[in-house]
Write a structure and sequence with these properties.
With 253 residues, the chain is α/β, with parallel strands linked by helices. The chain has one domain: Thiamin diphosphate (ThDP)-binding fold, Pyr/PP domains (Rossmann fold), CATH 3.40.50. The protein is built from nine helices and ten strands. The strands form two sheets. Strands 2-1-3-4-8-7-9-10 form an eight-stranded mixed sheet, with helices on both faces. The longest helix is centred in the C-terminal third of the chain and has 19 residues, at 185-203. The relative contact order is 0.14.
């Protein structure tokens, strides 16, 4: 007697089967899967163009089944802007880490948002330069140890971690800004919802959308994957509040 079998879960069509190079417990692989699910659900895989930076996600084109472009370090929003303006019928996203977006690329980040470009920016904030050895980044917490601040970041000499969502929320043109956290299943679900909202906003021609994702980096947090999730939940979220900052062009208090 034949039994009916219902597939509950399968690999997203927009995600390749290539083994990922990310460290165990890294948030990048999870966000890639969520991105693929969003492309599938919105039926935009064949019209999406991603722009990958210099950083841990430099090989994103190996894993996402959509057109991809590389960009020089920090210039990801500028490249995404050029692609979107030349191909306004395409869905364009930039995928950036904290060093790429908030350090060398801060000028591009600010001016792209200030112009209200109709692109989606995905910001992976794990508070370190992951690809080059875990050095201090603009988002490194005060007191957090890295190879370039082995005794912990000091606000008196290197300033405080930059809150990018709050900074962009002072501008008039962004349409949607939200910060989420990969700190467990509820956080993962909220992250996917935020990505859906951001891409739908672009599909509707609403303008600039920005999703910051607090992400674990077990290697340079020097914690286990499980402990890294707790660090995101209990430490990162203290300085970087998880919430919606801008919705439909209106700042949310």
């Amino acid at each position: 007697m034949k039994q009916n079998r219902h597939i509950i879960y399968s690999r997203p069509a927009a995600l390749t089967g290539k083994q990922m190079h990310y460290c165990a417990g890294c948030g990048h692989s999870l966000v890639h899967k969520l991105l693929a699910e969003v492309m599938d659900e919105l039926h935009i895989q064949n019209k999406t163009i991603g722009v990958a930076p210099v950083g841990c996600a430099v090989f994103a084109y190996y894993y996402l089944k959509c057109d991809m472009s590389e960009a020089p370090h920090g210039r990801t929003p500028a490249v995404a802007t050029g692609i979107k303006r030349s191909r306004p019928d395409r869905i364009v996203f930039s995928y950036q880490g904290d060093g790429d977006l908030a350090a060398i690329g801060m000028a591009e980040t600010i001016h792209t948002a200030n112009r209200g470009e109709n692109i989606t920016v995905i910001f992976i904030n794990n508070t370190v330069y992951g690809m080059t050895g875990g050095q201090m980044a603009p988002t490194t917490l005060v007191g957090q140890q890295t190879p370039t601040c082995p005794s912990g970041r000091k606000a008196s000499t290197t300033g405080c971690p930059i809150r990018v969502c709050e900074l962009l929320n002072t501008l008039d043109r962004p349409f949607y800004i939200e910060r989420t956290a990969l700190d467990g299943v509820p956080g993962i679900m909220k992250t996917k919802k935020a990505l859906l909202t951001a891409f739908k906003s672009q599909l509707d021609g609403k303008g600039y959308s920005f999703v910051e994702i607090l992400s674990p980096c077990p290697t340079y947090f020097r914690l286990s994957p499980d402990e890294s999730l707790q660090f995101v939940k209990n430490e990162l979220s203290k300085h970087f509040p998880v919430r919606v900052f801008r919705k439909e062009g209106v700042s949310i208090k």
